[in-house]
Design a protein that fits this description.
alpha/beta; Rossmann fold; 6-stranded mixed beta sheet; 18 helices; 20 strands
């Protein structure tokens, strides 16, 4: 058996009086492709830095086979006094021609000042340095953070072709599934190894925890509680998510019936003047920006969509493609150059990103959620005890009185989500919320969005997260936006099929000598009966909405119940009846609108 290239044995790392890592170790052989996984704050990054020889442990041994070259990709690259990106990459061991080729593939200027790079550009520069190092072992800490989808897929291809040993820390499940053939699980201070890829991690880890729980019951009640809490992150969520996924697939089928996968949705000229069902309706919107050199860049051209209550839309595309611009146009924050955007009524939006500026590092978690004092936090209009609400976000009761500054990065992101999602809302706007989140928090966010009964607009580069959450995907590519029902994998399949169909149609026209002359158009009008029904609905829905508002105002009188219980009950019944009538009208209106769109298409 060949000796390992790298080995850690009996590693100990202490913080204050506690051992974060206690007797952990692993060995790395030639060709090993491992993921390093575990809960946030368990010491994964510390262990990787020890493996790279950058940190001395408090105890234990590190062995590196003589002559073995190790390259380490940190989460935050240190450019030091490097004058250019090219200098930085070459300092890692790359030849000039190789460094320039890598930077060209990543879209970076070799002469760029490293200190002026954006987060995504800095990550690309560090990746180029690591790939060009000629190392035998690559140790990569969150390599996909701040990368767009094309860059992630490019990196996947590069690492798949790498023949050395590889250890990855990443929250990107799709990335790990493709690249790994083994798992290192950091759990309660030790490291367990499983010689199967990340796709088998959940099943394996759940089995281990179940076996431990049986033993723990016989030994120590406290260990039982800790083990059960540990399992909540894997087993319980996994089972609950099955029902959410079934519901998501059903929603995708509904969305697919109204979306033309070519992205050229045929929209009705007018809809009802008010409807709680409609959230956003965009018709033929376009946006062009003027560059610093005077040239113009088309971000979005002739895009149309209708977003209904309960839709969960994912926006994807390369960095700079215009995802945030489109999101701002759809939410009314930015006016399109052409076309129109109509917002639905009674919208209560909440915007979420991962900027931590809203957290006071000196405040406790309790104070952060209960800014006005007390022990209750209002969660979408309902009072919850602050500790109970914190447990929903995987915090322990003992953490409630701790200052925010003691939390890890992933835990701070979790607290931000808790604070933002407590606010009343029916429209969530999430601009790249998955950056810097650990898997545990991603699972939590997926759960919450699965249970959320409002509308979600989501910008993300996490393919697995998109597959688990969204009902449709809007892809921005080269100034064109198209909507595809389903998740990311559905988008890839439909895009390939659309390209194939267009190529076949073009070939058929060429072979038949057909230049694409206009063909007779099919009927585009509803029947007389359906047209009359649509007209009546457009009159009836505003009337019902007005009646509902009046009844709700009547019930808002705090003295009505005590003064006249009979009248209170009568108004309550009327309100329920009117809401049911409005819901039925909305459904009928939608059916007729989609029927008219289908005829027009």
């Amino acid at each position: 058996m060949a000796p390992p290239l790298l080995m850690l044995k009996d590693i100990v790392v202490r913080f204050a009086d506690q051992a974060l890592i206690d007797g952990a170790g692993f060995s790395l052989g030639r060709g090993d492709r491992l993921c390093l996984v575990g809960r946030n704050g368990t010491g994964k990054s510390t262990l990787l830095r020890i493996a790279a020889g950058l940190v001395e442990p408090d105890g234990g041994e590190r062995f590196l086979q003589p002559g073995t070259r190790v390259a380490y990709l940190p989460q935050m690259p240190d450019f030091g006094e490097m004058a250019s990106v090219l200098d930085y990459v070459m300092a890692g061991g790359a030849e000039s021609y190789e460094a320039e080729a890598l930077l060209d593939e990543l879209g970076l200027s070799p002469a760029a000042d490293p200190r002026l790079l954006s987060g995504g550009e800095a990550r690309k520069a560090a990746i180029a340095r690591t790939l060009g190092s000629g190392a035998d072992i690559m140790l990569l800490d969150e390599p996909t953070n701040h990368l767009d989808l094309p860059s992630i897929e490019w990196l996947e291809d590069r690492l798949a072709a790498f023949r050395g040993a590889l250890v990855l820390i990443s929250h990107d499940r799709a990335f790990l599934r493709r690249l790994t053939a083994g798992c290192l699980w950091v759990d309660r201070g030790i490291v367990r190894r499983h010689d199967k890829g990340f796709a088998f991690f959940e099943e394996w880890s759940e089995t281990i925890l179940a076996e431990e729980e049986v033993v723990a019951r016989k030994l120590d009640r406290l260990i039982v509680q800790e083990t059960q809490w540990s399992r909540e992150g894997i087993s319980a969520r996994r089972k609950r998510n099955q029902g959410r996924l079934r519901r998501l697939y059903s929603m995708r089928e509904t969305v697919a019936k109204r979306i033309d996968v070519t992205g050229k949705a045929a929209l009705a000229v007018e809809a009802g003047s008010q409807s709680g069902t409609l959230v956003v309706e965009a018709k033929h919107i376009s946006k062009t920006w003027q560059r610093a050199d005077g040239s113009r860049k088309t971000v979005v051209s002739d895009f149309s969509t209708r977003i209904l209550r309960g839709d969960k839309i994912g926006f994807i595309g390369p960095n700079g493609a215009g995802k945030t611009t489109l999101l701002k146009m759809l939410t009314g924050a930015l006016k399109p150059d052409e076309g129109t955007v109509r917002l639905g009524t009674n919208l209560t939006p909440v915007y979420v990103d991962q900027s931590r500026a809203g957290l006071d590092p000196e405040a406790t978690l309790w104070q952060t959620l209960c800014e006005g004092g007390g022990d209750q936090v209002m969660v979408r209009g309902e009072p919850r005890h602050v500790v109970s609400y914190l447990k929903d976000f995987l915090f322990r009761e003992s953490q409630a009185r701790q200052p925010v500054k003691t939390l890890s990065g992933g835990e701070q992101c979790r607290l931000l989500l808790a604070k933002a999602l407590a606010k009343p809302s029916n429209l969530l706007i999430l601009d790249e919320p998955t950056n810097d989140l650990d898997m545990e928090t991603l699972d939590l966010l997926q759960e919450m969005l699965g249970d959320y009964d409002g509308t979600v607009l989501l910008v993300s580069h996490d393919r697995d997260f998109l597959d688990r959450v969204v009902t449709s995907v809007v892809a921005l590519e080269k100034g064109e936006a198209r909507e595809y029902p389903g998740g990311y994998e559905d988008y890839l399949r439909q895009r390939a099929q659309t390209a194939k169909d267009e190529a076949q149609a073009k070939s058929a026209r060429k072979s038949s000598g057909d230049s694409g002359a206009e063909r007779p158009k099919p009927a585009t009008k509803l029947s007389y009966k359906d047209s009359r029904a649509l007209e009546e609905l457009q009159k009836q829905m505003p009337r019902l909405t007005e009646e509902i508002a009046g009844l709700e105002k009547r019930l808002a009188d705090p003295t009505l119940y005590s003064k006249n219980r009979t009248e209170f009950d009568r108004v309550t019944r009327m309100l329920d009846d009117r809401k049911a009538d409005l819901a039925a009208c909305e459904e009928q209106w939608l059916d007729l609108e989609m029927k008219r769109e289908g005829l027009g298409a």
